[in-house]
Amino acid sequence: MEKIKNERRNFIKFSTLGMLAVALGGGIALSPHALKAQMKLRPPGAVNEKEFLALCIKCGQCLQVCPYHSIKLADFAKGHGIGTPYIDARERGCYACSAVPCVLACPTGALDHSCEKPEDIKMGIAVLEFPNKCLAMTNTLVPKGHSKRIHDFTNDQRNITQLERDVLEKLDTFEEKQCTICADMCPIPNSNGAIAMVSNGNGGMKPEVYEGCIGCGVCEELCPANQAAIVVKPKLSFKQYYEEGIRL
């Protein structure tokens, strides 16, 4: 509850400042162009963005039940949808809980209750955006201390869960090994249908994304490169990105 109070306090503070900025700036931040540019990675089950913004009552229930502290509430600095839940994948991805508790907690349908299991989640699609940063492709071993950023984020939480501790314990085992983190840490059941390591043709490996990817963002969060080599494109499906070439 304390986290929700802090999140609400922050977005109220920024929203007050934001209203003044919008008034002075002629409402530019709420233009349709800005709406498209500010597309966020929403929690599991989120309906289309326009409907989501209309349905979400900013209650914070999804945030409260998330056992991984993945969900945040947007302040004015994050663009449109002040107070609505989103996920910053580089900070903490969605671990696709088996019962999808965030969806169950949503009282309005902003998170569609037909999303009942991890395979139903469609948040976006993972993309190897910066292959030159990928440790696997450059045959660079995972460095010691690679998980410090993840440990620091977890330790900042007031109520660390055993699930989070389990992630950290597994993540630490990759030190000084060939990097397969994005594939081996993928939370999707039968994750070979979502992402796998394949030969890059130059003696190294590379992550290859498949149709089972739900865009949870765990690969982006845990990527040990200083800049994540693999990132999630919100709202896009495998077919849209990889077959139709749609870019947002």
UniProtKB/TrEMBL annotation:
Q: Where is the signal peptide?
A: none
Q: Which residues form the 4Fe-4S ferredoxin-type domain?
A: 43-76, 83-116, 205-235
- Cross-referenced InterPro entries, in alphabetical order? 4Fe4S_Fe-S-bd, 4Fe4S_Fe_S_CS, PSI_iron-sulfur_center, TAT_signal, TAT_signal_bac_arc
Q: What is the top-level taxon of the source organism? A: Bacteria
Instruction: State the Gene Ontology terms under molecular function.
Output: 4 iron, 4 sulfur cluster binding; metal ion binding
> Does this UniProt record's set of keywords contain RNA-binding?
no
Q: Please provide the record's keywords in A-Z order.
A: 4Fe-4S, Iron, Iron-sulfur, Metal-binding, Molybdenum
Matching entries from Pfam families are given as: Fer4_7
Protein name listed in UniProt: 4Fe-4S dicluster domain-containing protein
Q: Which organism is it from?
A: Poseidonibacter ostreae
Lineage, top ranks: Bacteria, Pseudomonadati, Campylobacterota, Epsilonproteobacteria, Campylobacterales
